[in-house]
Write a structure and sequence with these properties.
Length: 344
């Protein structure tokens, strides 16, 4: 790390509408107001990145990241605004680029796109697409999105949408080149693709962190083999911080257990012992005191070499006050210590 390129820390959310004991999800309008307040507080506190994900289900509030990010842009000044992720497989790359270029204009050059396949598949039937062509859609549309970014007008011919011939795509962004990241869930092929294309990538770490070290190395080797400089590596993780370790764990456990049960049922029932193991110094869950969060970020940096950490906040029905305090602590007690430790 250097002063010119410091380690970046930010937050993101999918806008989960956590269900109560009666099985009723929280109100989407309230959740949206919460999310925009998270963005304002993160910006005021000095965090680097704010992201929102895309889902098309009744238990999520966000189906259109650029709309939410544009609202956040109007209420923030410095924080970078990214999708986490844009489900590119079921989107038109022309519209995606136009939306994020517009966001870039609104935000004075703070927009980014994170392109992914999507962990859920509800968008495919919703938009009339064939799940049997899952990989084809992503490869084809990522190629077009990058071509639109780099060329205007653009000529392109693919297999999943009509061709373009000398087509102008407008508006163009403030930034010379709109940043496009690739989201990698854990497959080697995705890391290779990102490396060959020279795209920065996110690793969504939900399991044993050292398991992702070979992916980071494969990404760097693939970039070098293609004659490209590897881009940034970002890490995304579930997150909650309080002033004390025990306080954070006691507060977060019931909420996180509920979140896992509703959103990751394949993980099985999360009892307190499993939670403590996940939140241990070498576990994937970031839940504890600021000092513990710092230690874990630095440990993962040693094995992955990443330069950006995004914390997934607001999980499992935490109160707005608890979430805002967690965001503030991430900015004031974690970010400066991590940067000081990694400064050349």
């Amino acid at each position: 790390m250097s002063a010119a390129n410091p380690f970046e820390i930010g937050i993101f959310t999918f806008g989960e509408l956590t269900r109560n004991a009666a099985g009723k999800p929280m109100d989407a309008a309230t959740r949206m107001r919460d999310i925009l307040e998270w963005a304002r507080v993160a910006d005021d506190a000095g965090l680097d990145v704010f992201g929102v994900g895309e889902h098309h289900r009744e238990d999520f509030a966000v189906s259109s990241p650029p709309v939410v990010l544009a609202a956040a842009a109007a209420q923030t000044k410095n924080i970078r605004l990214t999708s986490t992720v844009t489900v590119l497989s079921s989107a038109d790359p022309v519209r995606v680029f136009e939306d994020f270029a517009t966001l870039d204009l609104i935000s004075s050059g703070r927009a980014e796109i994170t392109a992914g396949r999507g962990a859920y598949l509800e968008s495919f039937p919703l938009f009339g697409q064939d799940l049997q062509r899952y990989d084809e859609y992503f490869d084809d549309r990522l190629e077009l999105l990058l071509k639109i970014r780099d060329e205007n007008p653009v000529t392109w011919n693919g297999s999943t949408r009509p061709p373009l011939h000398e087509a102008g795509v407008f508006p163009r962004p403030v930034q010379d080149s709109l940043p496009i990241w690739a989201a990698v869930g854990g497959t080697p092929a995705s890391a290779v693709r990102a490396g060959k294309l020279g795209l920065p990538l996110y690793l969504a770490i939900l399991g044993d962190p050292p398991r992702f070290a070979p992916l980071a190395e494969l990404y760097r080797r693939s970039a070098a083999a293609a004659g490209r400089e590897p881009g940034q590596i970002g890490v995304t993780s579930h997150f909650y911080v309080e002033e004390t370790s025990q306080g954070a764990k006691d507060t977060f456990f019931p909420h996180y257990s509920s979140y896992i049960g509703q959103n990751m049922p394949r993980a099985g029932r999360l009892d307190r012992a499993a939670f403590e193991a996940w939140a241990s110094p070498r576990g994937a869950l970031f839940a504890g005191s600021p000092a513990e969060i710092v230690e874990k970020i630095l440990w993962e940096h040693e094995i992955l070499g990443h330069t950006r950490f995004l914390a997934q906040v607001g999980l499992g029905g935490l109160s707005q006050a608890q979430t805002l305090r967690s965001i503030e602590l991430l900015a004031t007690e974690v970010l400066p210590v991590v940067r000081a430790a990694l400064k050349n």
